Amino acid sequence: MQHTVVNDLAGHLQALILRDTGACLSAQGLTEMRALLQGLSVQSSESASEAGARDVTLLLADLRGFAVVAATRPAQEVVAVLNRCLARLSAVVFRHEGTIEQFLGDSIRVVFSVAPGQPEHVERALVCAVEMQLAMRDLNLEHLRERLPQVYLGIGINTGTVVAGRFGSDLFSQYTVIGEEVNLASSIEAFSLRGQILMSESTYQRCWNLVSATAPMQVWVKGRSEPVNMRELVAIPARRLKVPRQEFRRSHRAQTRVPCLCQLVEGDDVQPRIIHAMILDMSYHGLMLELPERIEPQRVLQMEFELALVDYRAVGVFARVIKIKQERGRWIAGMEFTEISEECRPKLQMFVQLLVASR
Questions:
Q1: How many other C-beta atoms can be found within 10 angstroms of the C-beta atom of residue 60?
Q2: What fold characterizes domain 50-242?
Q3: FRET partner for 315 with CA separation of 20 to 30 A, picked from 71, 87, 146, 222?
Q4: Judging by DSSP bridges, how do beta strands 152-168 and 197-200 pair with one another?
Q5: Is-contact 243 192, C-beta < 8 A?
Q6: pLDDT in tens, 44-95
Q7: pTM of the model as a whole
Q8: Alpha carbon distance 236, 233 (integer Å)
Q9: Domain map (residue ranges) of the chain
């Protein structure tokens, strides 16, 4: 359905609402109605066609930090914040002829396919992604003024062939897309940080002349025997669009619970006493450690632990205590790696990547 048709229909519905209630929909309500009409139209036309393979670009966007909002704020405020975010994002998707396939709690999955009279679906998806990040930046400024919690967006994009069709039963069915390319898009999104847009190599190869992106980074994802390449989208110069990054880390942190044997290091000597600890999260460059006793900052520990996901036991790993605090009778220490063997480092990185991809 073209924009003009959707706008005309939305206008008629707005007039009906005004006639029966005496008030028009708010700007946010009108945006949601237009997105709904667009989505229903696309799904209706697609459902009428035969199921089959489609060349598409998939965009997955997930709100980062929203779980904290949901756990600490009143239910009415949580719903209001989530609906405001999704309405703003839906409006951006609608502008670029994307189809909102589904909302998954605090995330959204969008499919871009061939649209008459519109740019190639890869370009539309990338422009949409940048404008979604810009919309979230503006929304957070509003939240700041209204003393509402800040929320951020991580986005993953992948291009490829999917199976599209209506799946389900007579009781319930839904038009959706399935396949390995959908799974890869989800894995890529899982690696995105706050304000970040990551794309697959297949997406990059179809837009390299339009975008500024980082060099490829290899990551291990669930279900693949070889690492995959992904790149971070930085800007789209021809559209004068730049991604407003919100977070800069050297790597991801992945939550886990891994028993760890620790020994204090004094000078060049490793002390014989064993300290039993628990690794709570891990990144490429350090970890969070739960200890039974306080270890002073700047002290170094030698550690040994099992990386079961990659069938490897890490030994002789050294890390320095950067900070430490007490929680419920245990000590939580932020550790930075100071020495890791060349054999251990790629295993550790693979372990973190598989944890991230399986979230």
A1: 24
A2: Alpha-Beta Plaits (3.30.70)
A3: 222
A4: parallel
A5: no
A6: 554 444 568 889 999 999 988 777 777 778 888 888 888 889 889 999 998 8
A7: 0.73
A8: 8
A9: 1-43, 50-242, 254-357
